[in-house]
Each structure stands twice: as structure tokens, then as C-alpha cells.
Specification:
Number of strands: 10
CATH architecture: Alpha-Beta Barrel
Radius of gyration: 19 Å
Bound molecules: zinc ion
Strand order of the largest sheet: 1-2-3-4-5-6-9-10
Strand content: 5-15%
Low-confidence stretches: none
Shape: globular
Largest sheet: 8 strands, parallel
Order of helices and strands: HEHHHHHEHEHEHEHEEEHEHHEHHHH
Number of helices: 17
Helix content: 40-55%
Structural class: alpha/beta
CATH class: Alpha Beta
Mean pLDDT: 94
Distance between the termini: 11 Å
Number of domains: 1
Length: 362
Amino acid sequence: MANSPTLEAIRTAPKVLLHDHLDGGLRPSTIVELAQETGYRGLPSTDPADLGRWFLGAAHSGSLERYLDTFAHTIGVMQTPDALARVASECAYDLAADGVVYAEVRFAPELHVESGLSHQEVVNAVLEGFAQGTKSAAADGYQIRMAGLLSAMRQAASAREIAELAVRYRDAGVVGFDIAGPEAGYPPSRHLDAFEYLRRENAHFTIHAGEGFGLPSIWEALQWCGTDRLGHGVRIFDDVTVHDDGRVELGRLAAYVRDKRIPLEMAPTSNVHTGAAKSIVDHPIGLLRTLYFRVTVNTDNRLMSGCTLGSEMAVLVDAFGYEWSDLQWLTINAMKSAFIPFDERLALINDVIKPAYTALAE
Ligand SMILES: [Zn+2]
């Protein structure tokens, strides 16, 4: 307790981010400028500070629909190669400045084709932006490795095509595939052909499951679709029983998730905003961590949740009394669960993460 992690110190610690949406992490000032440049009308405010507060307010409203509505404005200004590259570059820079050393940032090509871009042009622009942002961060002394995940929208029908694109770009900066969008009414098995294709190609993927919908979606994502990781997976908690005497009992699905070390991409603040958890103190991450599930901490949407990975960790320190050893454990969990090759994950753990946390804890 002599050296409890402060937000300031946490921001200097190397961190790993697996679940962050490109269209949920724009700087408010960039949205205003891009709206002017691209002729996008309909922003609720053209004052950056006002606009930032508006996003946060809409996210806090407790309504998932209102939460998702906010993306119309970020996606609205992300329809040209220049805009996409700028947003991706600033994303890389902002994460690096927050102490993130490895990030998988996801985006859905099909959401950025309103002005006629092809899916491939969208991917090229974003990857170019990641490279630019990584370079400017390095010039300021921040080291980050950026990787892309391609998301397909679960209510649409392009999953197979996006999965093929992810495989085509697997050696060019895209490390995996994801399914995002509203869960209720759109079970992951709807896109089974995409997942079967990815498995035949020995490719990696994650599925948003157990956020808006409960155990059946987690079960489908794992046992039917064969996902490598669970996007959120918060509701796995429904399969964990805590008895009055404190004894904890896992149902078959929860036991499977823990036994197989299935990574849970949890984003505490976002989960509270969308109603997947009541509050941070009540967030299942507290118990799941003590039970040694493969828990990871993520931002999800930095703009809508008004958070960074550093601030998410600080919030957990406040709620659960986490020490540096806990933050290191969560960070190594995330690094082990990344979609880059094993030797590269190991190098980041041994050469970057462990030495830094050892020094911080002293
Ligand atoms: Zn998400």
C-alpha cells in the first residue's frame, strides 16, 4: 500500500489495449474541423468543449439506442481517405501518449463507404493513419505498436466479405476480425460462414457477446462460432453463483471460459453506460479477477465514455484497491491474448511490461 498507483503514474506504465473502436475515440476538436472540411451538417454543437460534453451526456443517458445514435456524428465525418487517416493517426498518438504500448483498434469498413470509398480504400487509409500516428508519437518519445481489427456489423450481410478482407491484410497490419453492433435479435451464428472461413484460414477473431445479451450469445460465440476472445463477456457472471457463506460456484459455461483461458475484453465505464453493469464497484470484473478468469481492461469508446486506458485502470484502483501487481497481471493477460505472434507477445511482456511494473512497484 506504500506505493498505490496514481493516475499520473498509471499513465506512464506500459499498457495493452485489445478493444477500442476507431469511430468511438475521436477528439471533439477533430470532429468539428472534419465536419467543416467535409460539409457534414447536423453536429449538436460546433464548440469542441460543448460537443465533448454532449457525447458524454448521451452515453450516460442509460439508453443503448441513444448511446449508439452518437456514432452517426463520428461516422458522418469519417467518409474520406484524409479524414480516416487523420482519425487513425490521432488515435495512435493519443493511445501512445496514454502509455499504451500495444493496441488493437477495430473499425468497420462498411460504415465508411457513403462517399463511394471501397472497403479496401477504407482499410488502406486507416492503416496509413496508424503508421503516421505511430511515427509522430515516437518523435515525442512514446512507443506504440498499432494493429487493426476489421469489424463486420451483425445486422448487415457483409461478414464473409469483410472476413476475406481481414485475411488479405493479415500481413499488412490487420491481425483479426470482429462482429459488432446490436446483439439482441442478431445472434453470432448468423455469420457462421464467415467464422468457418476464418478458421479454415487459421485466422483470429473476436465476437461482441454477453454485453447487451446474456449467456446464450456467449455460448454461441464460443461453441458454435469458435471465437478466440469475447468482446465484453460481462454476462458470464450470470453463470457464477456466490453463496451466502462466500463459496463461489461456476456453471458449466463459466467453468469452460475460465478453464480454457478465454480472454474477456471488458470495458468497465462503457459497460456501466450501456447498462451491462450497474456501477464500477458492482462490475463483475472485481469477482472475475479474484477467480482468475482471463480478464483484460479496455476502453471500448474513449470519446463516448470520456475515458482512456489509464483512467480505466485508475477507476479500478479506486473501486477494488488494485495495486501495481494487479495492474501488471491485467496487462500481461491482455498481451497474452493479443492476435500478434507468440514470440512478439513474449518480447513485449519480458522486455517492456515486466521491467516497467517492477520499477513502478518499488
Ligand atoms: Zn465494443
